[in-house]
Amino acid sequence: MSHCISALSRTLVVLVACHGLSGTLAAQDFKIYTPVFDLTAAETSPRAGQKPQPPIVARSVLYFHANKAYDYIEADGEVLIYEPNAKRFTILHPGHGMSTTITFEELERMVRDAEGNATKKVLRTKEERLEQSTRVDMIEFQLQPRFDVRYDREHASLVLNSSYMSYKVKCVPVDNSERVQAYLRYCDWMARLNYVLHPQAPLPGPRLTLNESLRKRGLMPGEVTMQASIGEGITLRAEHQIDWQFDSHARDRIHQWQTLVDSNEIRKVPFRQFQEVVQAARK
């Protein structure tokens, strides 16, 4: 796939892929594998005999263990460690030999600052009576997302429509309502973190609105398809594949990551320094 498609998809994946559960739940080990497909790209057939399929633009594996969530982002080689009891994320990048932490309070402040700057830009454009661009319209939508929401109980599907962005969600049955609510709290925090990690990404407002729609109905998403009017338009689909069997390989990976975080081999650096190094490496 081209670098252009990869870069655009990277900024939008944060609005379609979300997984994991909160540490407020009773301890239960499991993992979720999530591939994200670019439905606007030409289909490929990577192996003989397979049906053509859209290219995968992102992969991640989420491990839930010991009241933490370890989210491994394959393309970036990063591990996002969700620590709800400490109200923070720890981000580990073994390839760069460093890690950083960011608290939930810091995340909220950074998102508020970004939304404040975006609001000023929209107001300045209107006051100066400049020609309203599609980009400015999209920013305004992200600040105040408004969707036409429809839920089909029979097919367990939820649709949020707008002229700028839409979501189609296939929901999965979950008996424990606390599990659903905890899951969506995690999704809220991950939406904020992903925006802060990827400054070119859309604001988290649309994803937070989707989470709230799911929360009101007690629904957990299994497959999320998002269509956005950005550039020539793009459609992504995230498929969350839950595996309740936690094997020794999963435990070994978690142990390895946690050992690195706690060791002297990994430099603990401020969040901004971590972000600058990682972003420079992606260019």
Structural topology:
Elements: H1 3-13, E1 30-38, E2 56-65, E3 68-73, E4 78-83, E5 88-93, E6 98-103, H2 104-127, H3 134-143, E7 148-152, E8 157-161, E9 165-172, H4 177-197, H5 205-217, E10 220-228, E11 234-239, E12 241-243, H6 248-262, E13 267-268, H7 271-282
Parallel strand pairs: 6-13
Antiparallel strand pairs: 1-2, 1-11, 1-12, 2-3, 3-4, 4-5, 5-6, 7-8, 8-9, 9-10, 10-11
Helix pairs in contact: 2-3, 2-4, 4-5
Summary tags:
single chain, 283 residues, alpha+beta, 13-stranded mixed beta sheet, 7 helices, 13 strands, globular
Describe this structure in words.
The chain is α+β, with helices and mostly antiparallel strands and 283 residues long. The protein has one domain. The protein has 7 helices and 13 strands. The protein has helices at residues 3-13, 104-127, 134-143, 177-197, 205-217, 248-262, 271-282, and strands at 30-38, 56-65, 68-73, 78-83, 88-93, 98-103, 148-152, 157-161, 165-172, 220-228, 234-239, 241-243, 267-268. Strands 1, 2, 3, 4, 5, 6, 7, 8, 9, 10, 11, 12 and 13 form a 13-stranded mixed sheet that branches. A hairpin with a 4-residue loop joins β4 (78-83) and β5 (88-93). It is globular, with a radius of gyration of 19 Å.
